[in-house]
Amino acid sequence: MSHIIVIGAGQAGSSLTAKLRNLGFDGNITLIGEETAPPYQRPPLSKAYLLGDMARERLFLRPESFYADQNITLRLGTKVDAIDTAAKTVTIGNETLKFDQLALTTGSVPRFLPTAVGGDLDGVYTVRGLSDVDAMAPEFIEGRHVLIIGGGYIGLEAAAVAAKSGLKVTLVEMSERILQRVASTETSDFFRALHGERGVDIREGCGLKRLIGDGRVNSAELTDGSTIDVDFVISGIGIMPATALAEMAELTLENGIKTNAFGQTSNDAVWAAGDCASFPRNGEQMRLESVPNAIDQAELVAANMLGAEKSYAPQIWFWSDQYDVKLQIAGLNTGFDQVVVRDGGAARSHWYYRAGQLIAVDAMNDPRGYMVGKRLIDAGKNADPAVVADASADLKPLLKA
Ligand SMILES: Cc1cc2nc3c(=O)[nH]c(=O)nc-3n(C[C@H](O)[C@H](O)[C@H](O)COP(=O)(O)OP(=O)(O)OC[C@H]3O[C@@H](n4cnc5c(N)ncnc54)[C@H](O)[C@@H]3O)c2cc1C
Fold first, then answer.
1. For 52-184, where are the alpha helices, taking DSSP H only?
2. What is the pTM of this model?
């Protein structure tokens, strides 16, 4: 009987195996994951779960019984050490498993602070997995001082949770402004002000020189020349696609594990989806780090493993929660040359244009702006900047234009 092995029991791995069964595949499926928890959603790790507002069980994507009910062999706490594409086997310690088709859904690995700057001290955390968050949660005690390194979404979400929990928060961002890599000046300004109102000390153009402590971190030297006392540190300095296994197996890498439009790697029997995989779009290999991408791409790969031959065309959207602000993002703002602000007071959105064409929207507590923007972008339509900029103008007619 045919055997599909999926390596990486996260968002994409869980979606892929569920979809295989949903599409009627009745061969053997083995889903292998290094972490001990059943596949879970990561977004709440830096939001509601870290705040203590969400029960652990609610993180799980499907009840553990789902996998047994669907006859999916779920092997947790199990790291795949190697893949032999010629023999079509994977190695786990001394054990060898044979596959007919293989999917890599290995996700991302965080960048760690180097030991040379004190990254190995106790009290220094990253926010990638459930075990990271469970380890840092007891540190969130009112009145303590946390240093957050990195002003991307993960760092800012952690800052919001810490400030809400009554901690003193300092956040350093090496670039000129927070969110510089992913958002406009307008969006950076909005979130800087939001955190400033909550007392978060955001220092932009300021990096970490080194962390100091005897076993455990107790202070930090910053590149602005200051030294601050800290109780603990959260590092949110980015992630990289988890490509180690693919590299060992000599699969082609390009911005992650390179796949074709079907999600197939340079080896016909091996597929990839989620954070670890890049796919062709507009003449380059694009890679997305988001839940919608992990689900959609994994489900497409499941169909293609069964012969569907469908090309991947992502609908790009993302979100972030900070305090009482829900940010929803539609599209990709790469190469934007104009930002139109729609300021409706409590509801606000920033519309990105490239050469006069709408390409992305950042909507802050503006679900209508997000919804209209997303539908326009998905349909390749445009939005008159004059209408967008007038917060009293109805956006819906734009959809009919
Ligand atoms: C704190 C946090 C907040 C986020 N917030 C958002 C958000 O608000 N919105 C959004 O859209 N996205 C968000 N993301 C991103 C989103 O969670 C990821 O894009 C998504 O989880 C990717 O799914 P994946 O299946 O590719 O990888 P993962 O879900 O990371 O799963 C990969 C799994 O593979 C396992 N693995 C790797 N190598 C091996 C091996 N050799 N053997 C066995 N197992 C292996 C890993 O242990 C891991 O469990 C957030 C991520 C984090 C960490």
1. 64-69, 130-136, 153-164
2. 0.96
